Amino acid sequence: MMDTPGKTIHHLIIFFWDTMGFKDKLNNLRECKVNSNIYDAYFNQDIDENSIYVESRNGFDFTGNMFRIVEELSTGKYGDFRIYVFAQSHIRPKIEEYKRNYNLNIYRIIDSEDEACRILHNVKYIFADSGIRYKYVKKPGQVFINTWHGTIMKLMGIDNVHEQLSMGIIQRSLLFSDYLALPSDYLQDRLLSSFMLEGIYPGKVLLEGYPRNSVFLDEDKRSEFKSKFDLTDHEIFIYMPTFKGLVDDRKDEKQKDDVSHFLDQIDDGLKDNQVLFVKLHPYNTQQLDFSKFTHIRPFPMGFEIYDIVNMADCLITDYSSVFFDFANTGRKIIIFNYDEEEYLADRGFYFPLSELPFPKVQTVEDLIGEMNAPKVYDDEQFIERFCQYENVDCVSHICETIFLGNDSYRSAQIGNGKSSVLIYGGDLSDEGILNSLVEFTRNINGEKYNVFITFCPWMKNIKENHADIIERFPESVGFLPFSANIMPTIKEKLDYNKLFKNCNSKNYTDILRKFFERSFQQQYGNMRFDYIISVDDFDRALIFDNACDNFHMISKGESKVQKLISDDKIAENFEDLIEIFK
Prior knowledge:
Layout: H1 5-19, H2 22-44, E1 48-55, H3 64-73, E2 82-86, H4 92-102, E3 108-110, H5 113-120, E4 123-128, E5 143-146, H6 167-176, E6 179-181, H7 185-194, E7 204-206, H8 219-228, E8 235-240, E9 245-246, E10 249-250, H9 252-269, E11 274-278, E12 296-298, H10 305-309, E13 314-317, H11 322-326, E14 332-336, H12 340-346, E15 360-361, H13 364-371, H14 380-386, H15 394-404, E16 411-412, E17 419-424, H16 431-442, E18 449-454, H17 460-472, E19 478-479, H18 490-501, H19 510-524, E20 531-535, H20 538-545, E21 551-554, E22 570-571
Helix pairs in contact: 1-2, 1-18, 2-5, 9-13, 19-20
């Protein structure tokens, strides 16, 4: 007899109470219930062809590329869409003000993680500029567009040891993407290599520039905003420093103190026809006291950031990617790198500041001097390299490609044509397995295969030794870490527990096969692997076995999962498989 929903929950509660700690029991049960609602939308709801989901900076902002996309869609030129915007609750007032000031056609603002995931599984089009909700799984028929959120100068992904464990979060978003909209060949190469997707990114790269930068090529818009703020006769400066510290080791208070100290001196040095607007990075939320200044003002609220920045005669920044964007104007840029040595202690650059054509100053006196000096440097080569494809019609070109099927604009597909191999080695704490795996990857023909190692970043040995482990592999090997653990629904959890307790084909239900298939899709999106190899791990082995016909498992002796994997897929060691790849 089939269990009723009430009986199902009852059985699950009994299992949790018998096997887990009290808090874990409650949290796990709640999580499974939430997952049941989220993945009901994934499995059972049809895609709404007239709906769009937008997420900017993981919901911590609504600006830049995502704003310009929504602004363009609000014209109605591409159809009548319901536009959903996900944002953290404190961002909602900002979006409401944008709606009023720009007449944005936003159907709903969502600040609930669970509701966002349900809507994500129902919409046709998805726009993001960073990561995406971690429980989202891309459905067939959905169209995912990623614009990223700035030209890269600071070390990211595999090149930044602090991000190696978490880079799977960005990788999955990129692997979900059918389109990646970028402003230059430099950023295409740097973004995909930093996140180890060069040669395998499965989507199309749209080389039409950044939507947010189109305003820098619009002089009429500049004049409009200078008049709006009664600044037509003023010389305007904008100061926009970058985020300081690490996401988990923020330096908000220190940056506020630094900025407050030198703004006092700058205010004394400005002329009556000069005004300086200050905009701190969104992560640095501490507020400055502007009431004490004569010539320095807070950044105006209620308007898209670059509509204000475009008023500037001169941009002052440090290590922020804003200088790549503002360079489109051809106006002066000053690098105020008073804390360069300290900043580099947290993260490095892909090229030194000395290669930038802009004047660099470390003291307030020199800064004021540069603010009152004309632009005398040549930035033509810089603009050609980093603003390569920028154009004033960028956003309409992107929307025409996505919604009207216009394929006449610049684009590229960058797959290298090689077969792709994914290998899971467990926590790699066993020196013998690690050495064997390293040697195995050295013997795979790199001219024929893309080779990737995947790992679970929450495992103790991986967390503590990931940098050393990564260093031991050949440079040709890529890394695609999981971004999250498995996320079962209530029914999936019940079936999973039965299977784990008694591994046999009878307990290996269709529900579980779909669950493992979804778990793979949740991480790797549009990516397909020709071969997958895994050490003997219950969860990972079943995820991979359901994802690839050419799956092989390295046995560590008799185990539960071996009863579910066919004998021809089981090998005793990595060496037994090398003949496949020669």
